[in-house]
Amino acid sequence: MSNNWIERADKVVMNTYGRQPLVLVKGEGCRVWDDAGKEYLDFVAGLAVCNLGHSHPDIAKAAAAQLTQLVHVSNIYYTTPMVELAETLVRLSFADRVFFANSGAEANEGAIKLCRRYSREKFGPGRHRVISALNSFHGRTLGALSATGQEKFHQGFEPLLEGFKFVPFNDLGALAAAVDGSVCAVLLEPIQGEGGVCLPDADYLKDVRRLCDEKRLLLVLDEIQTGLGRTGKLFAHEYYGLKPDVMTLAKGHRRSGRGLRPRRACQHLRGRAGHRRRGQGRRGTLKRRKVSGGGPGQRLLCAKGAVPVARQISGN
Question: What separation, in Å, do the N-terminal and C-terminal C-alpha atoms of the chain show?
Fold first, then answer.
């Protein structure tokens, strides 16, 4: 039966991913079934999305209930589940503010924009570069791709955006040597994921934090792969004894649903958040209006679905 679905897909869906010859139709917990009824253990979890497995009853109940109330009103209004999720993320993390977007890549784009805007307003123009790591991965949108330190992802999309430097991961000396008057931030994964599950030395991230403090740089940790319990602690940086200025999250705190947009969060500290002025350019510091960011599309899956996920992962 799979061949019919695969043949139909190949006629109408762009060939951008190397898919496995499987048509999956349902899941429960850590198991999935194909259209022929064959059962599989799912070790992929939607590429680190389904932390609580498929068809989790609490998430399904929350999503179904929300569909009977409100689906989408855009981010020009307040919604109660948006506030509930933001409060939960703040309570469970170092941060005091949350920015919602539509994807992990957009969360990283928002973090880059936040760093550039903060640095420009605090130090003036010319201080806009971001240092990232070789072998990193931060997303496929053009800005996040430009911050990704793997040439194989760059091929065919040049020229990329200007303003990024790359240094070897876990090499403090190389990072320190790359810092100059044009740099505003350092963007790192606490543990490199797509690049090969590369762990830093025990003191590396703490030393990076110290360097950023000395040079007055913002430290951004991309926890899209490592956050929300996937390393054992709620956030991977907790193992290394530091707090970033900005953290990006995605994947594990939502349930993906067909036709329903998941949420991601860009979290930042009070000192940086307080620098932001509401309404600049009518859309705030990031100057980007999200059609569904912060609205009841978020209300459906971000807040109603993600709050029980975050609570179960964290244990409170």
Answer: 44
Where do the structural domains in the chain lie, given as residue ranges? 2-43, 58-314
Of the listed 166, 169, 245, 251, which one is catalytic?
251
* pLDDT, tens digit, 9 for 90 and up, residues 161-204: 999 999 999 999 999 999 999 999 999 999 999 999 999 999 99
- DSSP, res 77: S
Q: If pLDDT is split at 50, 70 and 90, which confidence band does 72 have? A: confident
Query: Contact at 8 Å (CB) between 236 and 94?
Result: no
* 222 carries an active-site annotation: yes
Going by C-alpha positions, the residue among 54, 194, 84, 81 that lies closest to residue 133 is 194
What is the rounded average pLDDT for all residues in the chain? 83
Q: Which residue out of 222, 235, 245, 290 is catalytically annotated?
A: 222
Average of pLDDT values for 99-104? 87
Question: What CATH fold (topology level) applies to the domain 58-314?
Answer: Aspartate Aminotransferase; domain 2 (3.40.640)
Q: Among candidates 259, 299, 254, which has minimal Cα distance to 58?
A: 254
Of 316, 270, 220, nearest in space to 95 by CA: 270
**Is-contact 294 100, C-beta < 8 A?**
yes
Active site residue 137: yes
Judge whether 150 and 137 are in contact, CB under 8 Å.
yes
Cα separation, 146 vs 261, whole angstroms: 24
| Distance in angstroms (rounded) separating the CA atoms of residues 171 and 294 | 38
* 203 included as an active-site residue: no
Give pTM, 2 decimals: 0.84
